[in-house]
Amino acid sequence: MELLIFRIFVLVLGSAAAAYTDTKTGLINDYITYPMIAIGILFSLIEFNLNAFIIAAAVFGGGYLLYFLGQIGGGDVKLLTGIALLMPFFGQGNFIIPYLGETDTPFIAGVLFVGIALAVLFNSIYYIIKYVRKGIDFDYNKNGFIMGGVLALFLVVYFYLIMQFGVSINFVLFMGSLMLIVLIRLALEKGIRKEFNLETVSLDKLEEDELVALEFIDSEIAKKAGLGIKKTIGKKEIEKLKELKIGEIAVYRNLPKFAPFIFAGVLIVLLYPNVIEMLLF
């Protein structure tokens, strides 16, 4: 029990600190995530918990792919890996605060489910309202509307088919509502990023993990710098840009923060480990 209390203490403290620094600075410092990872590894070795390493490896691999594609930051990947190592599972008989039900679902799965759902809802609604107030450029977002319409038709067919197999109406309502908001945000994404996130910065002010705005960069320059599929700038890409004598480059900044929603996910799943089952089944 003492070990579990310490796990929860480190888990909550680390994710709270990450949420705070991410909100204030847009960064999650290594001095927060590395101790979480190290303590998680130590506990897993003491307990001979191979599952913890398997779950953490899957989280790191999936997270790194999203980082490579410019969807989340490197600090987010390390934070999620640390959480997976600190708390592989959180089931019946393994709790301090009483909760409703039990689950065999990995702890990080619940955290991601809650965190992503909250992030999508909050950020999508926030930016949609902000863009509507500024004035939507429908012509600039034309391709987004086409893509959103195609995906909407696909989802209607998908939800209709799964309902024929007795899928819970809670699942359909929850995911349908969430996906509707996502589709609206997706349709407006190009314009939202241009209006609220696009900046042109000089190379001396360029930071690692910046998300490059490829559509505003010459394709030849992007290719020579090793950018394309990879949308996140690292040391290697910065050096290549300097060699090409590029004075400035377009990037997306002030992007939505994810760590605060990860922290919310941690708290909710600690109280309700079966949150996925509660909402979807």
Description of the molecule:
This protein is mainly alpha-helical and 281 residues long. It folds into three domains: 2-88, no CATH class; 108-197 and 260-281, no CATH class; 199-252, no CATH class. Helix content is 66%, strand content 5%. It contains eleven helices and four strands; from the N terminus they run αααααααββαβαβαα. It has helices at residues 2-25, 30-46, 50-68, 74-86, 107-134, 142-163, 169-196, 219-224, 235-243, 259-271, 275-280, and strands at residues 198-202, 210-212, 232-233, 248-252. It has a four-stranded antiparallel sheet with strand order 1-4-2-3. α3 (50-68) packs antiparallel against α4 and α5 (107-134) crosses α10. The protein is globular and about 55 Å long. 29% of the residues are buried.
Largest sheet: 4 strands, antiparallel
Helix content: 55-70%
Overall pLDDT: 86
Q: What share of the residues does DSSP label as strand, in percent?
A: 5-15%
The oligomerization state is single chain
Q: Which consecutive residue ranges, at least 5 long each, have pLDDT under 50?
A: 92-102
Distance between the terminal alpha carbons, to the nearest Å? 31 Å
The coarse overall form would be globular
SSE arrangement, N to C: HHHHHHHEEHEHEHH
- Side by side, the strands of the main sheet go 1-4-2-3
What structural category characterises the helix and strand content?
Answer: mainly alpha
Radius of gyration: 21 Å
Tally of structural domains: 3
In DSSP terms, counting alpha (H) and pi (I) runs of 4 or more, how many helices?
11
Record field, number of beta strands = 4
